[in-house]
Amino acid sequence: MTTRTTILHAAAFGIAWTMSHGIAAAADTGQLPCKTTAECNEQAAKIGATAPIAAQPHTSATDAREDQFYWINKINKASAVMLVETGIFPKDVGQLIAKGVDFTIRQAREPGGKRPADVLQIERIMTDHVGAEASVIHAGRSRQDMYATFRAATLRNQTLDFAEALLGLRERLLKKAADNIDTLMPAYTNGVQAVPITYGHYLLAYEESFARDQNRIAEAYGRLNLSPMGTGVLSNSVWPLDRRRLAELLGFDGVVENSLDSSQVIPSDNQIEATGIANSSAIRIGVMMQDLHTQYHQVKPWLLLQEGSTYTSSSMPQKRNPGLIMQARMAASDVVGLSEATVIRAHNVTTGMVDYKSEFSELGVFPRAIKMVTATDRVFDAIVVNKPRAVEELDSDWTATMNLAELLLQAHRIPFRVGHGFASQLVSYGRPRDLTPKTIPFDVVKDLFAKTLERFKLPAQSFPMTEAEFREVMSPQWIVKHTKGVGGPQPEEVARMLKEAQQRLAADRAWLAGRRDRLAKADEALDKAFAALLPAGAPAPK
Fold first, then answer.
1. Among 208, 340, 346, 530, fewest CB within 10 Å belongs to which?
2. Cβ(128)–Cβ(336) under 8 Å?
3. Does the pLDDT at position 458 exceed 90?
4. Looking at residue 44, what is its pLDDT?
5. Residue of 184, 155, 53, 54 lying closest to 490 (CA atoms)
6. What is the distance between the alpha carbons of residues 63 and 365, in angstroms, rounded to a whole number?
7. What is the pLDDT of residue 536?
8. In angstroms, rounded to a whole number, what is the distance separating the alpha carbons of residues 519 and 318?
9. How confident is the model over 62-99, as pLDDT tens digits?
10. Measured between alpha carbons, how far is 467 from 442 in angstroms, rounded to an integer?
11. What's the longest Cα–Cα distance across the chain?
12. Beta strands per DSSP E along 322-440
């Protein structure tokens, strides 16, 4: 008896046994009749098997195309190649399997073709065409490792799509920063105007935050892109499957070695890590949108959306509602909530439960995260900076006061706490009288300085600056220009940081392109190996 005949007999016996024990056996999705994709998925869903969620959002056209049907067949292609290469089954069996897999893929493209998600429903299409013998493709496999592989690949794709979206946002921030290297603006602590910086300085701070998220993606990718395929239920099998070859054919960089870990533990780890990165970006985007939105509390904002990027009130003609900002902020809040839901779904379940294996996809974390980034892109495309108004905002308050205390110490050896107390007295005197550093009488300045020395029991001395010097050092322009040290808002330092940020962005783009290129080459290698396995005369696989 040939190997092929033996395999055929074994497969036929398995099917006959299942049918003869149908009353006691659990429902077999492969035996449920279905004529259309929708019917197949409905049948699977009725018994609790995996079925696609209606109108599932996607992160890209590739993500939409590479659904569960696509990936089960891709795994089948890799399995067929590996089974023959390792000698587990002879080439004629491999050719039969390949013929069935190829038919399954082709029929889905035809009118009326089926594209189910369940492993056994897909296998049934194959075996109905080439015979039950082809079911040997399932040797050593399970829904557990196959679905874990599909989910790992989906997480990989969606994480890379999110990385690409972040690159686009960072590029926008850097372009806006380049246009505003010396644009003055107030910075706030505790919600109160604190010190003058530049808008370029502000934007670079948040670009660096998103760059750190990009680094987190690159670091996480080494853990995300490991294959669980070939571990069966969770403990391997009697079949000597070449897991590393499967990983290579499917574009993974290696395998999750521990078979229990591969499909029952690391899926939770990777989802929590990856969605946590989206959470980090969402929190920062929410802060930036809040910073912008508070501008609309003012009668004369210095940052606002250009006309045509806001919408009017239905009853109040003076209003220009910043809908773009609100949409971005709401999307960010959604991402934070969905990423936390991913954690909650993984909480307090036993090993092997389905709760924590695909929640990132079911909840749509990354599609929402990309929608968030896209909404933020629209905001920064529409932002208009009113530079004179930003200076006016700074000049209208005592934002430059801290610098006075610093200079009194540095240039005139006035103890810092004394200089600080004097500067505070200037503010306490000026604000109730609607005075600013530009308008407070210089005689008052000198008088308050003398009273401060007396309060600190220091020898009397004249105020050590001329009026011209005092007015100059209290201006935001002078402070920003004369700031020292790495990372400050002084224009030359902002320009240096901008150049380095642009270099980091280019490196991160190259990293992403490299990952996508490796995946594309793995696809090409799989297609070539699978095509070589097809029987002579068979059309080339598509």
1. 340
2. no
3. yes
4. 75
5. 184
6. 13
7. 78
8. 53
9. 999 999 999 999 999 999 999 999 999 999 999 999 99
10. 6
11. 114
12. 383-385
Bridge partners of 248, per DSSP, are none
Percentage above 90 pLDDT, the chain: 77
Q: Strand pairing partners for 383?
A: 305
Three-state SS annotation for 82-148: HHHHCCCCCHHHHHHHHHHHHHHHHHCCCCCCCCCCCHHHHHHHHHHHHCHHHHHHHCCCCHHHHHH
Using CA atoms, how far apart are residues 275 and 268, in angstroms rounded to an integer? 11
Distance CA 172, CA 194 (A): 27
4/471 Cα distance (integer angstroms): 95
Mean pLDDT of the chain: 91
Please give the structure tokens belonging to residue 115: 């594209």
End-to-end CA separation in angstroms for the chain = 36
Determine the Cα–Cα distance for residues 214 and 191; give it in Å rounded to an integer. Answer: 29
CA dist 82 and 33 (Å) reads: 31
pLDDT digits (tens, 9 = 90+) for 125-172: 999 999 999 999 999 999 999 999 999 999 999 999 999 999 999 999
* Segments of 423-468 assigned E as strands: none
Residue 259 three-state SS: helix
Sign of CA dihedral 392, 476, 430, 194: positive
Residue 234 DSSP symbol: T
pLDDT at 52 over 80: no
Residue pointed to by tokens 């900076």? 385
Facing residues of 197 across strands?
Answer: 185
Task: State pTM to two decimals.
Answer: 0.90
Report helix, strand and coil shares of the chain as percent, to nearest 5.
65, 5, 30
